Amino acid sequence: MHSVRSPRVTVFPDARTAARVVAARLASALQENPSLVFGLPTGRTPIALYEELVRLTAARALDWSKVTTFNLDEFVGLRPEDPGSYRRFMQEHLFRFTNLDPQRINFLVGTANPEEECLRYERAIAEVGGIDIQILGIGTNGHIGFNEPGHELDSLTHLVKLRQETRRSNAAFFGGNIDHVPTEALSMGMATILHSRSVVLLAHGESKAGCMARVVNGPLTTELPASFLQLHPDADLILDAAAASQLTH
Ligand code: PGA
Which of these is catalytic: 74, 93, 106, 143? Predict the structure, then answer.
């Protein structure tokens, strides 16, 4: 008998191989349970995963019609159709290649009243019975969603003031100009994320090596929000060789 450990750490030689393996697993999960509820991230990291999922959607004729999705976060002030919105990002990279029912695509609306919108989102997640598989990227400072390091973390979906470093890493999605990156966002909270039945975090590249070493080998701390995944009973950390280069064991 071997012990079941979580988070499980898996290292792939490169990001493309990681994306291929994770996409194949997600496709199989979807085929087994056509009513899966996915939590989805945006950013550079999941792009290869979405490309592979799009490929498998065509190759295996995946049926997304009963799938429900909840994205992690959205910028405040942007409308869903705005070019820099995460809603638009998802449309371009994944949704338009699937037969997802638009009614089952859940997104935080950046132009809504923030307080009411956060409550609405939590209720919507509860109404479908929670998230089955939450996919995550990670910021170089250890943030997940827009849960930034600090003395305390918010548990539920909430309004966030974005840090400069986070705005800087999003500038690429706004023509390279940090001044065009919104200053606030709405984000699922730590409990929202940790309540998902399973979590798959992807990390690629050397810039993530330091924070991944702390997530895997370091103490649990609000100064590194992703370290809370140490508490999750079914979490996978999927790294490429560069992101794993500072792991000690
Ligand atoms: P990235 O961002 O995938 O673009 O590196 C991840 C994040 O900041 O959560």
Answer: 143
